[in-house]
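Cross-posted from the bioinformatics board.
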Amino acid sequence: MTRLASAFAKGHPALVCFVTAGDPTPDATPAILDALVEGGADVIELGMPFTDPMADGPAIQLANLRSLGAGTTTADILRIATDFRTRHPDVPLVLMGYANPMTIRGPEWFADACAKAGVDGVICVDIPPEEDPELGPALRAKGISPIRLATPTTDDARLPAVLEGSSGFLYYVSVAGITGKQSAALDSIEQAMQRLKAHAEIPVAVGFGVRTPEQAGPIARVADGVVVGSALVDLIAEHGANAAEPVRKLVSALAQAVHSARKELA
Amino acid sequence: MTPNSFRTLPDERGHFGQFGGRYVAETLMPLILDLEAEYRKAKADPAFQAEFDDLLEHYVGRPSPLYFAPRLTAELGGAQIWFKRDELNHTGAHKINNCVGQILLAMRMGKTRIIAETGAGQHGVATATVCARFGLPCTIFMGATDVARQQPNVFRMKLLGAEVVPVTAGAGTLKDAMNEALRDWVANVHNTFYIIGTAAGPHPYPELVRDFQSVIGREAREQLLSRTGRLPDLLVAAIGGGSNAIGLFHPFLDDSSVKMLGVEAAGHGLDKEHAASLAGGRPGILHGNKTYLLQDADGQITEGHSISAGLDYPGIGPEHAWLKEIGRVDYTSVTDKEALDAFQLLCRTEGIIPALEPSHAIAAVAKVAPTLPKDTIILANLCGRGDKDIFSVAEHLGVKI
């Protein structure tokens, strides 16, 4: 079983945590990643900073700027991933970002570098299924999961195309919008999950606008996983190099809410 | 290998060779597919074409004149210089051609709110204009730096009823305005139409903007044939994203005797800060398309610089990237200084105050015309007028107004 498959087969919903690599500095990221794991994150999403993060709200835009301002390079990110894999052999690590930094040296180069760094999956925000040849074949050839996004605008006719060639999990973006802004109503998420699960054989994780244990718990009752990003990134913005401890605390509270969600229901 | 025609692209996936495509977030993908389907229907609908033509004639003031420039020709002492006078359009630039087409599409699709990005403000003004004409609310995203250097156009947009949102992210110029417009669009796809101002962005925008702007080249071709009985030897146009250039070039692409020259902004010089994506960039993915981009080794986008806010963009339309790669169009660049000189040259010789964007084309004309025989014809696109630029030109010339 792959690391990603195992993470969704623990008998409870998975907590997926996002932070931007190199925020506030490349040296600070390893301790923050360790805090995510210690807090109970089941999957780590490591954001690759980009100068033009078109799908992100202010919190993650600023994280991108802080990281690039600290001089973070693609080599730094791959080194952070490699070191993470050494420290945490079993925790799945997913890189998330935009097409240009991922493809600029060629898709094969990127897929190879990811494989060597122990990366399990890649989420590329601006490569929809229509442009899959840009990156998908190279990732699949190296056994790395291309993880796709589904949104409220992805209708039933389109879902099979979104799922085709993807693996690991399906990331359901619960609001039509950018990261960190508003959150979706629970009943709309529940309806979406029924629709998605009718098509998807892979787990479905729900994200965008999920900030607190109180929000995450109810979503975890209906989803296979919950993604939290902007709330963690806000803590890093506030605490900078000392962010690991507050991040661990929030993740711990989120993990408790997510992991126990179905027990509460029962 | 030379294709039978240079006018058959993009392919059904929106690609011009390796360029173009649809690199957008999933939220936008269904809408982009709808837009493409609706555009195919509109293109085949005589009523759509008739309404577009009628507005171009009676609202925009087309056809724009084709003008022989006698004193500039004499001063440069070589080829005959002709100008396509798109600066005489309503709102003062070629941008309005595309806005008329896109707002008709928006209404066909039942959209009730319009957004746009703008650099120099010409596209913002043109968008605000058509929104006022058709009674649709309009939000224009404009980099804060550009807001400061294009105050007259900011005021025009507000007069026309648009909300102007200054964007402070990044350097506060055109690319940042485009990022913010995309963020708004993603959050409001249900009711909002994004009128992109240049022949770039995700498919089908590069195609439809080109088609709406091709009225420039079609008119110019007919006008020159009827006036001189022949085709031009050389077309020249300035390039930021490249919409006025592709509009002029496209109808001539299969006329093998017609050479073409696109002029990028070399800013302070190609070895310093500039906005010449073809000369100083390499292929990458940004704002929905694959094209030449100014970027570093990691694919981070670098800021463009030009004296002209309308050329200050680190990318270029994907069809230009393809035309460069196959060699059908030549591309060059001119500096801020050369553009300023050309701006003054045209004022002085022809009594026409050009915008800083076509001043780049004029600078290239001034370099090449003297090297060509007197019976050759250069046709350059005068894509905007300079009223909006007089304050920044005065500042660069050290004049206090």
